[in-house]
């Protein structure tokens, strides 16, 4: 029987275990979205993951509205990522960059322009800005003739990721961000080739994935989806039909793996009564399938692998607070709890100061 601690081939990436580090926004870059020195240590500490998926990383200024989040569109950003990937590799790890366009989930005070999306919609509530929270703005629908520029941005970010030393990239198509805003029908009311039918609404996902594959190769390209329930106001009337179609097209394109963020009815960071779609997606996706959301014990992760639904599990907040998470899970050691107050703050507190087992032993 397959164990959580067995190796796995995630496309062209050979992972020594199936405990992946999920993407986690942390806000430790500069206002110019350049990675900082403390990010080197943060990722190095977590190199024992089967694979690290970085925090969401902007493909362009237009698409990055989260304060102090990193980007991958400039030479300065590439140069600052290089010591991060080098540190992970020197520690024996593997790391891919998650590529992010936030669509309508940005504020013009951060990006310098009106948000863009599939349609003229707005997210309820407030956006994070450098001046605190401000109400979300109504997005401007992307014109059809602007889509090639978005694809160019993904291509440039992919090339930059490889130049920065990443082992591959993950396309962020989940959580209510730009690609998700095209996928789901409560956010996409277009009447052109990118709206209406499921085939049309998945067109941007297909085109982005094809463009990224052309640069990185299919085996070093992965995708993240969030198929069940509302994500930042983005939802669909027929999620199973939509996401099984999307998963099948991604399988046919030969991506290295697919990651699903699937909260449950008792989720601790988002919850929904919409059933998880991973069992249905498993039937159409022939490559490694990774699940995420509220897996915080080895037993829970092993159970989903034993079920045949998933091949690996991505741990988020649990990895945030436990830099040596694979070892802790393997031996049943106690787990540190993350401090929510420092998730998005600047500085080392709640970032690089969570102890590893060996540090706890010395302290004792």
TrEMBL record:
The keyword Oxidoreductase applies. Residues 3-336 form the NADH:flavin oxidoreductase/NADH oxidase N-terminal domain. Its cofactor is FMN. GO terms for molecular function: FMN binding; oxidoreductase activity, acting on the CH-CH group of donors, NAD or NADP as acceptor. GO terms for cellular component: cytosol. Keywords: Oxidoreductase. PANTHER family: NADH OXIDOREDUCTASE-RELATED, NADPH DEHYDROGENASE 2-RELATED. Belongs to the NADH:flavin oxidoreductase/NADH oxidase family. This is Alkene reductase.
């Amino acid at each position: 029987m397959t164990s959580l601690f067995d190796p796995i081939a995630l496309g062209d990436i050979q992972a020594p275990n199936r405990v992946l580090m999920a993407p986690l926004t942390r806000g430790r870059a500069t206002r110019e979205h350049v990675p900082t020195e403390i990010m080197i240590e943060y990722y190095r500490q977590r190199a024992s993951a089967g694979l690290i998926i970085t925090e969401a990383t902007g493909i362009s200024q237009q698409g990055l509205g989260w304060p102090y989040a990193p980007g991958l569109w400039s030479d300065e950003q590439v140069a600052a990522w290089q010591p991060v990937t080098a540190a992970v590799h020197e520690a024996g790890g593997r790391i891919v960059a998650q590529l992010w366009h936030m669509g309508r989930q940005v504020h013009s005070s951060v990006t310098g322009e009106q948000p863009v999306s599939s349609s003229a919609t707005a997210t309820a509530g407030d956006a994070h800005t450098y001046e605190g929270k401000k109400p979300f703005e109504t997005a401007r629908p992307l014109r059809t003739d602007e889509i090639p520029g978005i694809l160019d941005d993904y291509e440039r970010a992919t090339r930059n990721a490889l130049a920065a030393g990443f082992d591959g990239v993950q396309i962020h198509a989940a959580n209510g961000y730009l690609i998700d805003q095209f996928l789901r029908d409560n956010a996409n009311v277009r009447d052109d080739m990118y709206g209406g039918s499921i085939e049309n609404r998945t067109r941007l996902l297909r085109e982005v994935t094809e463009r990224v594959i052309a640069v990185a190769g299919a085996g070093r390209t992965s995708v993240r989806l969030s198929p069940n329930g509302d994500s930042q106001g983005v939802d669909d009337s027929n999620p199973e039909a939509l996401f099984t179609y999307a998963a099948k097209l991604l399988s046919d394109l030969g991506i290295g793996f697919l990651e699903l963020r699937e909260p449950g009815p008792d989720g601790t960071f988002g919850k929904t009564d919409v059933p998880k779609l991973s069992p249905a997606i498993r039937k159409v996706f022939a490559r490694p399938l990774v699940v995420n959301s509220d897996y915080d014990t080895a037993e829970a992760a092993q159970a989903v692998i034993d079920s045949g639904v998933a091949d690996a599990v991505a741990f988020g907040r649990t990895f945030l607070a436990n830099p040596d998470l694979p070892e802790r899970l393997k031996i049943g050691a106690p787990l540190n709890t993350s401090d929510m107050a420092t998730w998005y703050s600047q500085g080392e507190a709640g970032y690089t100061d969570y102890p590893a087992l060996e540090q706890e032993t010395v302290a004792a």
